[in-house]
Amino acid sequence: MKRTVFAAPYAVWMAIFIFAPMLLIGYYAFTDGGDFTLANMRAGLDAMYMQVLIRSIWLAFRATLLCLLLGYPIAYLLSRMKHGTATLLSVFFVVPMWMNFLLRTYAWQVLLDSGGILNSLLISLNMPGQQLLYTEAAVLLGMVYNFLPFMILPVYTVLTKMDASHIEAARDLGANGMQTFFRVVLPLSMPGVISGVTMVFIPAITTFAISRLLGGGMFMLYGDLMENQFLLLNDWGSGSALSFILLILVIISMAVMRRAERQAGEEGAKLW
Q: Going from the N-terminus, what domains does the chain have, and what CATH number goes with each?
């Protein structure tokens, strides 16, 4: 009974800030003037909207892949260092997260501008200036920069908790460094990888500030589309339908990731 009392504030928080907004989204998505309708959902499945969704998924996939390719080696190197050194270095990845998300993105806007530091450096080297801002590459760079820590930290946590006896046993059995990594370290670290992928991929699909500031509105993503429906067009029905479609995709993605994480944990346990 006492434990239930301590859980009550969290239940109230979830009811107000999670379940209530979801119910409102469902209500506006399937009603028009209080009457049930599927018109909003049919409009949300329009071919033009689906193209924006596919573009967002593809861009989020590339950002997640880059975060994985960059984040896993960093997390692995940190896990091989002394605890004090690794803690100090990990601060450099955590500190930017303490800053406001928009401020970090504005900083890249200044760096990538035609008169920014990067173009000034190119000109000082007698090289032509480049159009770095308001490109798809700039949006991708902004995603990777903002979401990279969410890939590094889960992988690093799993790697640091890995039992060193597994690696020692593999070496005793004659496995070299590459074999040990791919047959022992990588499988056992998959729960952290899957957690990192989930924490990067889902926010990357829904982002709109990065595409607006670094893409200049030239690369509309699904988050921009939803914002336009709510704030510019004041079309809560269509905006809620778009949000509901994305919510279903996110739930499916999370279910797939959880299942993959569970399977990865079981396969890692079978190694020993």
A: 14-270 (1.10.3720.10)
